[in-house]
């Protein structure tokens, strides 16, 4: 993390909280400014029905002369004075927490619970942080299986990309560490199942249009966040969209994601059959357009419970799916397809991206309004053959060391604040009392 104002006082939760405390302990106008910033943040994430009320509250509280919190404006004199302000205690607290943040992470840091699923490189299980009680999902990657399948580079790339993203619409990484047998990625726990399950396994196949629009908007927000960081997802499909307990969805499994600097294009074939864009199938150079094609396929699937170019449980070779994708037109035979849905799918399933622009492609309600919260690749890795004979050498150990970077700053700091640990350890009065553990028990 950078040592800039934006990084320390805005992006990092503990730094932001300490900065707010500093403002509140300063002159009255700084206290009002801290309250204003907090209320403004709440307003930016408010739903439509409460947004106007929140706006009026802000105007009344901070923009009226008779109001106690009236913001008179920070003068040039005050701004100059701020340059000489320092608080040694706050500096020490920040450094202490940053040091604590860098502690070595191991299996002893967590309680481990039941297995949630299994994949080609290992399994996913539920874990709980011992001293905060926070629940996560731990994705375990078998070291020997990774080496046998030459998946080390893909695993490291996924981990590095996960470290960079921080979005409400993407499953975020909290910790990365290793033990004797596995590399471990500890991420947000999503206990609502994946979108594919909701399409095919809950009553009548398909999803009602209201939920299709709702999920599509959140998925679009996740894709836009990745694209804003020059990251192409390349594996957009309902199976990789996970729901939390409140029904909010997030993108998961960034194993095929790739960071593309400005102007760079790739022609690598990657993705899942039925969702791959024509430019991938033709092995042409591409950037972000392939994610919009896959989103179009996913919206179609949410509505019709089948893919645009492959029917549900249809036994067909991948070559035929490729031919249909390149040559056939998308047909809308399901009764739930209305005019707006057909329009967005047609625009997303554009077979000539070389002459198309993605600017303004997705419009509300398919994309959220600003600041409103709303097999993994071609080759299957699910090989069950024995890997006990695989030997790990010094080069492997160097790779494991590069992978095991411990806590991810923003997610770790958020956990410390949300669990109450930060307030407990920094409250002098509380420190004089016997603290009660916040760790819960799951039977």
From TrEMBL:
Active site: 235 (proton acceptor)
RGS domain residues: 12-62
Domain of life: Eukaryota
Molecular function, one GO term: ATP binding
Keywords: ATP-binding, Kinase, Nucleotide-binding, Phosphoprotein, Serine/threonine-protein kinase, Transferase
Entry binding sites for ATP: 139
Location of the Protein kinase domain: 110-367
Pfam families: Pkinase (PF00069)
Family statement drawn from the similarity comment of this UniProt entry: Belongs to the protein kinase superfamily. AGC Ser/Thr protein kinase family. GPRK subfamily.
Protein name: G protein-coupled receptor kinase
């Amino acid at each position: 993390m950078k040592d800039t104002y934006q990084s320390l006082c805005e992006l990092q939760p503990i730094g932001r909280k300490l900065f707010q405390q500093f403002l509140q302990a300063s002159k009255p106008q700084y206290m009002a400014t801290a309250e204003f910033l907090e209320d403004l943040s709440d307003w930016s994430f408010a739903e439509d029905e409460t947004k106007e009320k929140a706006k009026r509250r802000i105007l009344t509280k901070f923009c009226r002369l008779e109001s106690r919190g009236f913001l008179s404006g920070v003068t040039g004199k005050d701004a100059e004075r701020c340059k000489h302000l320092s608080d040694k205690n706050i500096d020490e607290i920040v450094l202490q927490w940053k040091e604590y943040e860098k502690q070595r992470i191991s299996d002893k840091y967590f309680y481990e619970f039941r297995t949630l699923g299994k994949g080609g490189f290992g399994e996913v299980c539920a874990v709980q942080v011992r001293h905060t009680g926070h629940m996560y999902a731990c994705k375990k990657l078998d070291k020997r299986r990774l080496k046998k399948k030459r998946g080390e580079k893909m695993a490291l790339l996924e981990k590095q990309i996960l470290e960079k993203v921080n979005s409400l619409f993407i499953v975020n990484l909290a910790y990365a560490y290793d033990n004797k047998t596995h590399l471990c990625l500890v991420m947000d726990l999503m206990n609502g199942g994946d979108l594919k399950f909701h399409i095919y396994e809950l009553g009548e196949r398909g999803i009602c249009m209201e939920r299709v629009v709702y999920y599509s908007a959140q998925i679009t927000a996740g894709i836009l966040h990745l694209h804003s960081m020059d990251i192409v997802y390349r594996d957009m499909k309902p199976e990789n969209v996970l729901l939390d307990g409140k029904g909010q969805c997030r993108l998961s499994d960034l194993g095929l994601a790739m960071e593309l600097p400005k102007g760079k294009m790739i022609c690598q074939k990657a993705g899942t059959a039925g969702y791959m864009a024509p430019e991938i199938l033709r092995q042409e150079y591409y950037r972000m357009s392939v994610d919009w094609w896959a989103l179009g396929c996913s919206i179609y699937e949410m509505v019709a419970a089948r893919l645009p170019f492959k029917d549900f449980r249809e036994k067909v070779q991948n070559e035929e799916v490729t031919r249909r994708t390149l040559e056939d037109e998308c047909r809308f035979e399901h009764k739930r397809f209305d005019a707006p849905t057909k329009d967005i799918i047609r625009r997303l399933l554009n077979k000539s991206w070389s002459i198309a622009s993605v600017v303004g492609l997705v419009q509300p309600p398919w994309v959220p309004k600003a600041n409103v919260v709303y097999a993994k690749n071609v080759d299957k890795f699910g090989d069950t053959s024995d890997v006990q004979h695989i030997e790990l050498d010094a080069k492997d150990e160097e790779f494991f060391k590069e992978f095991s970077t411990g806590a991810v700053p923003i997610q770790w700091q958020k956990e410390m604040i949300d669990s109450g640990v930060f307030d407990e350890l920094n409250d002098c009065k509380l420190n004089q009392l016997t603290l009660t553990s916040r760790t819960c028990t799951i039977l």
